Every structure is written in C-alpha cells, then in structure tokens.
Amino acid sequence: MSVLYNRVALIGLGLIASSMAHAMRRAGLAGEIVGTARSAETRDIARELGFCDRIVDTAVLAVEGADLVVLAVPVGAMGAVAAEIAPHLQPGATVTDVGSVKRAVIETVAPHLPDHVHFIPGHPLAGTEHSGPRSGFAELFDNRWNILIPNGADEAATEKLIDLWKGMGANVETMDADHHDLVLSVTSHTPHLIAYTMVGVADDLSRVTDSEVIKFSAAGFRDFTRIAASDPTMWRDVFLANKDATLEILGRFTEELFALQRAIRIGDGEALFDYFTRTRAIRRGIIEAGQDTDAPDFGRTGKHK
Ligand SMILES: NC(=O)c1ccc[n+]([C@@H]2O[C@H](COP(=O)([O-])OP(=O)(O)OC[C@H]3O[C@@H](n4cnc5c(N)ncnc54)[C@H](O)[C@@H]3O)[C@@H](O)[C@H]2O)c1
Ligand SMILES: O=C(O)C(=O)C[C@]1(C(=O)O)C=C[C@@H](O)C=C1
User: Fold this and answer.
1) Span 179-266: which CATH code?
2) Among 5, 111, 130, 263, fewest CB within 10 Å belongs to which?
C-alpha cells in the first residue's frame, strides 16, 4: 500500500496507539509517525521501542504539520487534549479518536475543534487486557471491526480514513454514535462490568475460604479474570461516559438473571435447558461467522507481551 498521510500524530502511546504505529509501518501507510504521551516515562519507553519516527514532549508539538491526528487517550481525557491542540491543527487535517464510547467523546471534543479540520470519531473493536506502549503489536486490528462515526464529515476525508483502517488490517463499518454506544454496551461494556463483579465476588469469597476460589479456579473464571485485569482508568471512563446505555443493559441483565435464579429455585430444568440452548447457538454463530477469537490470537489472551 502507498502512503495515505504524510504525518500522523498519535496522542497517547498506549496499547491502541502503539498498535496503530506498528500496523501503519507494516503497510507503509504514513510518511512520518510522530507520537507523544503525558508522562516522560511513557515517552522514553516509546523512544526505546522505536515504533514512532519521532517522540515529542507535548501534544501541541505533535500536531504541528500533521494531516492526521489520532486521540488515543482515555475517554475522560479526550476533551482536555482537544482543547490543547485545537489552535495548532493544520487546516484540512483529519482528527479522529479511538475511544470506546462515542457520543460523550463527540460532545467533549467537537466544540473545541476549528471548522477547518475534519472530525471523524472512531473505535477499533480490538484490544487486550494489557496497556501501555509495550503492549502494542501490528496484528491487533487484523480482521477486526473498526467503527467510524462520520456524522456528516467530508466524504473524501472519510474514505481516506477508511482506507487507513483497511490498510491496518481492519474491516470498517460506519454508524451513528448513539447506536454505537448501545451496541457496545451489550457486546463489550456490560460484559466487562459483569467480569469485574464476578472476580470481585470470588475475591470476597476467597477471603472466607482461604484462597480456594483462586486456587481451584476453572477455565470460565480465568476468562473473567483476564477481562477484569483491564485498565482501571480506561474502564472507569467508559462507564461514566456511557452511563445511559450501560444502565439500560444492566437493567435487562438483572431481569434475566432473576428469571434464571427463579428457574433454579423452582427446579424449572426446561427453562434452564432452553435458555442455554439459545445462548449456545449464539456462540456457534460467532464461530461460523469466522469471528472466533480463540484462534491464534497474537496476544489477545495475554500470551504475547
Ligand atoms: N484497551 C482496549 O482494549 C481498547 C480497545 C479499543 C479502544 N480503546 C480506547 O482507546 C483509548 C486508549 O486506550 P489504550 O488501551 O491504548 O490505553 P493505554 O492505557 O494503553 O494508553 C493510554 C495513553 O493515554 C495517556 N493518558 C492517560 N491519561 C491521560 C490524560 N489525562 N491526558 C493525556 N494522556 C493521558 C497514557 O499516558 C497512555 O499513553 C481509550 O479511549 C480506550 O477507551 C481501548
Ligand atoms: O479482548 C479484550 O481484551 C477486549 O475486551 C477488547 C475490547 C472488547 O470488549 O472487545 C474492549 C474494549 C474496546 O473498546 C474494544 C475491544
């Protein structure tokens, strides 16, 4: 593939930004990749790893002359970063983000941006429980979805960003921000909350049973612990930013949980069997659609680091 952007600025140098840098390099999509992070320690690690062409000390310096700016910080930090860089953005530049929530990011970022840039929010549906500049890898986005929210943005700028994500290995879909937030609440956010809760419950129990819960933890519970090891700052921000959709889905979740609880209490085996048959079909459907993530995973289960 050929160069799509002459200078890409990555703001925040964690899992997603470092993976983007590796993936852009793999396909030769950027003339130059300039990165910055809030802490000197992260910048030093990124310099040592060398996945960017230049590491600079501030976001203002990073966006200088950039035709693509990627906000890759926790959702709660996006607004402040946008305010800081806004006066320094090059006319005609595209500004995008990778935040896990979209409506709140648009509401906090868009008001700061000048009319002469194209703001096209995005969200790659790919990640691991690891964070920081050392955790990135070029294959993270391969065959994963990236959702873009063009929201009336310039068509040519949108097409170019779509090409970038395809060049990094992703499949791209566009949608509305509210729809994104509801769908992701079901498929990502609420499942994370449930995993955090289940591990918390087990931890409480382990204090009672002298660590037996951890010692004898079975595969299912181990999967929960992987998810519950995800970055606390990132997930705090996700739940605060996607409050309404999360509360809506949690309400439905608790209703279903109570229905299953009742089936167990009254010994309604048929209800349990029917429910589990339905959910098993969903898992099989995911595998048939080729979206099974148990296959070689380049570190999604934490083997890579
Ligand atoms: N981890 C995932 O699975 C995943 C997947 C898709 C999207 N996302 C989204 O991508 C974004 C980045 O996530 P990540 O996993 O790369 O995170 P990360 O923790 O690996 O990296 C975050 C980066 O942001 C910087 N940062 C943190 N707080 C900041 C602040 N207040 N101001 C400026 N910089 C700050 C950190 O120094 C670090 O460089 C988040 O918005 C997250 O919701 C994450
Ligand atoms: O595999 C994981 O560790 C993830 O949880 C990645 C995951 C997800 O829920 O699928 C987490 C949050 C992101 O916004 C996108 C992807």
Assistant:
1) 1.10.3660.10
2) 111
How many A from CA of 14 to the centre of ligand 1? 6
The CATH number fitting domain 5-175, selected from 3.40.50.720, 3.30.420.40, 3.40.50.970, 2.30.30.40: 3.40.50.720
- The overall average pLDDT reported for the chain is 92
Please choose from 43, 73, 137 the residue to mutate so as to test ligand 1's pocket, defined by most ligand atoms within 8 A of CB: 73
Q: Which residues line ligand 2 (CB under 6 A)?
A: 100, 125-129, 188, 227, 300
Give residue-wise pLDDT tens across range 197-254.
999 988 888 776 766 776 777 778 888 999 999 999 999 999 999 999 999 999 999 9
Q: Domain limits of the chain?
A: 5-175, 179-266
CA of 53 to the centre of ligand 1 (A): 20
Residue 283 has pLDDT above 90, yes or no: no
Give the sign of the dihedral formed by CA 162, CA 75, CA 241, CA 115.
negative
| Closest residue by CA, ligand 2 atom 2 | 128
Quote ipTM for the complex: 0.98
Element holding 32 (H helix, E strand): strand 30-36
**Spacing, Cα 295 to ligand 1 middle (Å):** 26
